[in-house]
Amino acid sequence: MKQENKVKQRIVGGVVLLALAVIFIPMVLDFRKDYDQVINGSNIPPKPKDFRIETFELNETPQIKVPRLAPEDSVEEKLQQHPLVQQKRAADAAAPKVVAPKPVVAEKSRPSAKPLREGWTVQVGSFGSEKNAQGLRNKIRQRGFAAFVDSVHVEGKLSHRVRVGPEADKGKANTLKKVLQKEMGLKGLVIWQQQ
User: Fold this and answer.
1) Helix H segments across the chain?
2) Domain of 156: which CATH number?
3) 3-state secondary structure (DSSP) of residue 148
């Protein structure tokens, strides 16, 4: 038995040495003829004959000239007459006014009715317990924010989401989110709330 194992080991060792020789001998003794060639130049193409460099200045922001005021002129009057202020005033007058819709409070006799709200809101919590959601809502209201509980079915379970708002502008909702985090330590998500 021992003799057979020794023979097998020698055969395996010989095969391994032969495989190593097949791999490494060609690498060491590479007989390609291009090794003796010297590399001249580089792979960078030559500069074109019509190559030129042009420079120019970029004026991205328009220069606004501030008019000099006579001693008898007031700053407010001159600013009101400035063309940029007049353009802004005309644009504000032409822009449609966006008014946040007033929430409709559900009647107490119908607990399943939801308050109707539409706009950007900040969701600060989601609870399985309506009592917990109402507790957070009440704390937020005590701090002077308009908060409400929105109950929905999520994956077959009733979820009570506490939201603050709504705001007609998403930027105002993002500001509200930052204020809630700073003043009350509440992290929130800005979400579009539909009626």
Assistant:
1) 2-28, 75-81, 83-94, 130-142, 170-184
2) 3.30.70.1070
3) strand
